[in-house]
Write a structure and sequence with these properties.
Elements lengths: L12 H6 L1 H4 L5 H9 L2 E5 L5 H9 L5 E5 L24 H12 L4 E5 L8 H4 L4 E4 L4 H14 L3 E7 L2 E7 L9 H4 L10 H4 L3 H20 L8 E6 L4 E6 L11
Parallel strand pairs: 1-2, 1-4, 2-3, 4-5
Antiparallel strand pairs: 5-6, 6-7, 7-8
């Protein structure tokens, strides 16, 4: 479904030049860029997934990005978290990411919060258009899903472990749609994170790029999205499979 056009926004000459390759795409053009320039997204988690999501969205024409992550940069992060270098060790990821993304695109309106995402973070989400879950554990994903439902915001989820990844779009802004907990309910907690089992560096880049793509498609409204679908990626065997997500009428979260 084509996204509704927002109020007319005057694009600058710098915009027309910087985002020229997007403007040349039939699916985006200047109308799509005008929509993106007025959109605000939130990225929760600035690890292996959050780094490519933030990098690509910050250079794609979005108006505002909010970054949330309470962690500091560690040496084990550098294998896959592409926004950081050895000089950033011990620094807060949100601070480093903001600084680096500002270098990539000085015109981007970007805010970073070095905090743990909790129920108290609702106020930061109220004016965002899409919430992006780039965390690495069930507890955080479940909380993000609940807040997305509360605020009626679309949710783009990604996950990566070992050589397998997942991407899904949950339209928590629409009535009677499946949510994250319809898919994964009653999971005790993460015992299989990339910290425990490892992850292929290129997998996080691929999944993060797919998440960023779904964000752009959802905001502008073109193509076929992963709305209420789960994309399963296996890089070891180079297989890609999509399954439909069905609403669980007994789900304790969205019902």
């Amino acid at each position: 479904m084509k996204a509704k056009k927002t109020n007319k926004l005057q694009l600058s000459n710098d915009d027309l030049l910087r985002y020229n390759k997007h403007i040349l795409l039939e699916e985006i053009q200047t109308d799509g860029l005008e929509i993106l320039k007025q959109k605000h997204v939130a990225i929760i988690g600035l690890g292996g997934l959050g780094c490519p999501v933030a990098q690509y969205l910050s250079t794609s024409g979005l108006g505002k990005i909010t970054l949330i992550d309470h962690d500091v940069v560690e040496e084990t992060n550098l294998q896959r978290q592409i926004l950081y270098t050895s000089e950033d060790l011990g620094l807060y990821k949100a601070d480093v990411a903001c600084k680096r993304l500002k270098i990539l695109n000085p015109d981007i309106n970007i805010e970073g919060y070095s905090i743990r995402f909790t129920n108290d973070s609702v106020s930061l989400m109220k004016d965002v258009d899409i919430i992006i879950d780039a965390t690495d554990n069930f507890k955080s994903r479940s909380l993000i899903n609940k807040i997305s439902l509360l605020l009626k915001k679309p949710l783009v989820m990604g996950a990566a472990i070992k050589m397998q990844g997942q991407v899904a779009v949950f339209r928590n802004d629409l009535f009677d749609m499946p949510c994250y907990n319809c898919l994964y309910d009653d999971i005790e907690d993460e015992i299989n994170s990339c910290t425990d089992l490892g992850v292929l560096s290129t997998l996080t880049g691929m999944i993060g790029s797919l998440q960023a793509t779904e964000v752009i498609k959802t905001l502008i409204g073109f193509g076929e999205s992963l709305e209420s679908k789960l994309l399963l990626v296996d890089l070891k065997y180079m297989s890609f499979r999509t399954v439909k997500i069905v609403k669980d009428n007994k789900c304790k979260i969205c019902n």
